[in-house]
Amino acid sequence: MQIDRFDPTPIYRQVAAVIREQITSGQLQPLDPIPSESRMVSEHGIARDTARAAVALLREEGWVVTLPQRGSYVAPRKSWPAS
């Protein structure tokens, strides 16, 4: 999925949707690391703050957990929001 800069949906939400899709499709499994901020910046051509906002949204929704100085990982399935 590509980021659509003409879509009225905020870019951080589009990036979060890409990662959420990778999780729900099984491309990313529980406890797998999600793409780093640097990788999101280079792959999607976004600002680092946008990448942080995407991760924060996924964390709030229960899709990822962040471990200080270790990174962000797919949360265990029991933590995922109800589909």
Notes on the structure:
By secondary structure, this protein is mostly helical. A two-stranded antiparallel ribbon has the order 1-2. A hairpin with a 3-residue loop joins strand 1 and strand 2. Helix 1 crosses helix 3 and helix 2 packs across helix 3. The protein is globular. The two termini are 21 Å apart. The mean pLDDT is 94.
Instruction: Please state the average pLDDT score.
Output: 94
CATH topology descriptor: Arc Repressor Mutant, subunit A
**How many helices does DSSP assign?**
3
Shape: globular
Low-confidence runs of at least 5 consecutive residues: none
Order of helices and strands: HHHEE
CATH top level? Mainly Alpha
At the fourth level of CATH, the homologous superfamily is Winged helix-like DNA-binding domain superfamily/Winged helix DNA-binding domain
Domain module tally: 1
Structural class based on helices, strands and sheet pairing: mainly alpha
Keywords: DNA-binding, Transcription, Transcription regulation
Protein name: GntR family transcriptional regulator
InterPro entries: Bact_HTH_transcr_reg, Tscrpt_reg_HTH_GntR, WH-like_DNA-bd_sf, WH_DNA-bd_sf
Domain HTH gntR-type: 9-77
